[in-house]
Amino acid sequence: MAKLERFYNTFQPDHYDVFIDINRAEKTINGKTTITGSATDPQIAINQKNLQITSVQADGQELDFKIDNDAEAVRITLPQTGKVTFTVTYNTKLTDSMMGIYPSYYEVNGEKKQIIGTQFETTFARQAFPCVDEPEAKATFSLAIKFDEHPGETIIANMPEDHVENGIHYFEPTVRMSTYLVAFAFGELQSKITETKGGVKVGVFATKAHQPKELDFALDIAKRAIDFYEDFYQTPYPLPHSWQLALPDFSAGAMENWGLVTYREAYLLLDPDNTSLEMKQLVATVITHELAHQWFGDLVTMKWWDDLWLNESFANMMEYVAVDALQPDWHIWELFQTSEAPMALQRDATDGVQSVHVNVNNPAEIDALFDGAIVYAKGSRMLVMVRALLGDEALREGLKNYFAAHKYGNATGADLWKALGDASGLNIGKIMNSWLEQPGYPVVTAKINADGDLVLSQKQFFIGDGKDVDRQWQIPLNSNYDEAPQIMAEQKLNLGNYQALRNKNSQPFRLNLGNNSHFIVKYDEPLLNDILDHADELDPITQRQLLQDLRLLAQGQQVSYASLIPLLKQFKDSTSAIVNAELYQIANSLKMFAKPDSPAEQELRQFFDLLSKDQVKRLGWLPKAGESNDDQLTRPYILSASLFARNNDAITQAHQIFIENQDKLESLSADIRGLVLKNEVQNFGNTELFNKLIKVYQQTADASFKQDLRMAIPNTTDPALIAKVVGYFENADVIKPQDLRAWYRGLLANKAGQQAAWNWLRDDWQWLNDTVGGDMEFATFITVTAGVFHTPERLSEFKDFFEPKLNTPGLTREIKMDISVIESKVNLINKEQVAVNKAIAQQS
C-alpha cells in the first residue's frame, strides 16, 4: 500500500507556466512546465503520473531527478532552498480513460469527430503536467496550448484567451487555485453567450451535433444562478467569465473547474420543446450545484481530501436553495425529499458505512470518498439542519465572513463552524460533530410508557446486522409540541403525561417536521394510529415521510413488512408526486418477495393494478396542457405500475402510441417516451425493432432520448438479443464507457438477462478495471449489483467473486457493505415472505 506523502510540506508552488502541445492524430502530448515556488528542503517531490520526463532544469543547469512511480512522483534535487524556479520537460499520451487530458468522441451527419477536454479531479492533473497535486497547493497558472488546429475550432480555458502567437494559444493567468480545478478544451464547438447583472460573461458550449436551442435552458439557469449566488453569498463572482461545456464523454455528472465547468451532455443540454419536467429539474440542480462550487470549493477549498464533504455537501444544499429562488413554482425541495433524503437514509443504515468526514490514509482511497449517498446527500441534510437552526440571515452573514477570511485559500470544517457560530451565537460545531464524525443515524422511538408518559429514546438504526456501540447524536427534534426540546442530546427523554399533552396541543404528536433532520421515528401503536387517523390533514412531505420511515423500519425488521401493504391502498389516490414516489418505492420493493412466474407474482401484479388503475384513468397516457407539476411527475409512476400489472389497456395504449410515432420517436413526449419504448421491447420486441433502436441510440445526440433508449433496450427477453447487448458492453462505438453502468444495471434487473450480465461482470472484470478503474464511478458497479441481488444463491456467488478482492484499495468498504446489503434482503425475505404475500393476496 502506497504511503501517503504530502509534497506541499517541503515545496509550496506560487506560479506555473504550463505549455502543452497536443497531437490528436498521434495521441501524444509534449509539455514544458516552469514552476516557481518556495522550497524548505533541497530534496523535493512533485507529482507526475505516466509522464516521460526528459529534463529538469534551473537557470539553464540540469538538475538531478528520479522517477518514483509508486508515489506518482518525480523527486528533484534543488541547488538551494528558498525561492526557486525550475522547468520540467516531458511527453506523454492522451488518455482514453476520461481522466487527465482526453478525447471525447461524437458524430455529426455520420462523420466521426472528437473534442479534447480535461478532468483533473481528484488527482489527475499530474497526468497532464508535473505539479504539487494537492488541494492546499494553490498557485496561479498561465496556460499556453498548442494543438493540431484546423479552421473552425474553438479553444476555451479557465480564463480568457490573451493572444495567439505561432499557433500557441496563451491564456490570462488564473487567480490562486488548486491544480484539480485547471481546465481547457478545444474542438469544433458552438456556443451561446450572455452577461450577468454584474458583468460576468456566461456561456454554454457544446459540439455541433446538437441543435442550437438545446443550449438555451442552461444559459438562462447559469446566468440567473450567478446573480443569485453573488447576492446570497454577498461576495462577487471572482472571474471574468463562467463557461459551461458539455462533453460527449464524461465520467462524472459534472465538474466545477473554476470558470470552465464541464458536464455530461445529459446534465447540461436539453430540448426546451420536448424534455420532461423531471429532467429540467435535474439539469437545473446540476448547474446550480457546480456554480455553487465557484465560491464554496473553488474560492475557498478544502485543505485536504478528508474535508471533501465541505465542498460537496454545501453545494448539494445550495443547488436546491438556488433553484427554489430561480423557479419557485417547481417546489424543488420536494425533489430533495425524493432524492437526497431517501438515498442518505438507505445507505447510512448499513453497518460499515463511512462517516461524512473521513480520514484519508492512502491516495487510492481518495476516489472512494465520493460516496454520493453520504458525502453529497447525507452531508447536505446535515447542512439543511444547520440552515433550519440558524435561519438564512445568520447563514449568509457567516458565509460572507467565511469567504472573506479564507478566499483564495483553504479551510476545514472547523473554520466553517466558527464563522457560522460567530454569526449566530450557536455552538454549531458541537452539534454537527456528532453527525459528521460518526457513521449512521438514530431511530427515535416515541412511546407511551406504563405511567402514561410520552417518552423519547434514541438508538442507532441498522438495516441488516449492525454492531451497536452506543452512539448518540445531538438531534434537532423539530416537534409540533413545544414541550419537546430543540435539541435532544440525551439517550432518553420524558416529556410528561401524554394525555395532558395531547389535550393541550389538539393534534397528534409528531417529530422531524419537514423531514429535514437525519433520523427516523418509530411511533408506538397508539401514536401511529392517531397520526394515520388524521393522515388526510397532513401535507405531502409528512405523508411521504410517514411511509418512508415505516419502510425503513420494516427493512430493519422493527415493524412487519406486511403492515405496509394496507397503507399503500390508503394513499393510492394521492395527487402528490412525492407521496406517489414513496408509495411505488415500497410497492416495487414487494417484487423481491414474489418468485418470478409464481402465483404470488400474479397476485402482486393484480395489486399493482388495484393501486394504479384509477390514477391511470385520471391522468391518461399523454400529458395535458396546463396540468399541474404533480400530475406531470406522477404519471410515469402510475403508468409503470400499470405496465407491470400487465393491464391490457395500458399495454395496448402504449403500443398504439409507439405505432403512431415509430418514424419520429425522438419527438414522442419525453414524459412517457421511455415507458412506451420499454413496453414495445418487452411485449412486441423482435430483432428488427432491436436493431432499429440500437441504430437510433448510436445516431441521436439528444441525451434525454438516449437515456430513454438505454432504459428500454436491456428489457429484451430474447436470449440472442441479450447476447447482443452484452456484446456491445465493450464496443465504445455503441455503448460509451460513461453509460456502461446504466446498461449493465438494466440487463441485470431483467430476469431474462440477469445471468448474462452477471457472467459478463465476472468474466470481464479485468477489462472493466482497465477501462474505468481508478475512477470514482468504478465501485458503483458493485453497488448496483447488490441493489438487484436478493437470493441466497446470488449472495453466495457475489461473495465468491468479491471477497477475494477485499484488499483492493478503494473497494474494501464497498464490498463489505454490499455483502451486508444482500444479506439483509435475504434474511428479510426469509422472515417475511409468507406474511407479505398473504397480505398482498388479501388486498388484491
TrEMBL record:
One of its GO terms (molecular function) is peptide binding. The record marks Y376 as: Transition state stabilizer. Its cofactor is Zn(2+). Keywords: Aminopeptidase, Hydrolase, Metal-binding, Metalloprotease, Protease, Zinc. Binds 1 zinc ion per subunit. Zn(2+) binds at H289, H293, E312. One of its GO terms (biological process) is peptide catabolic process. GO terms for cellular component: cytoplasm; extracellular space; membrane. Residues 217-435 form the Peptidase M1 membrane alanine aminopeptidase domain. This is Aminopeptidase. It comes from Limosilactobacillus agrestis.
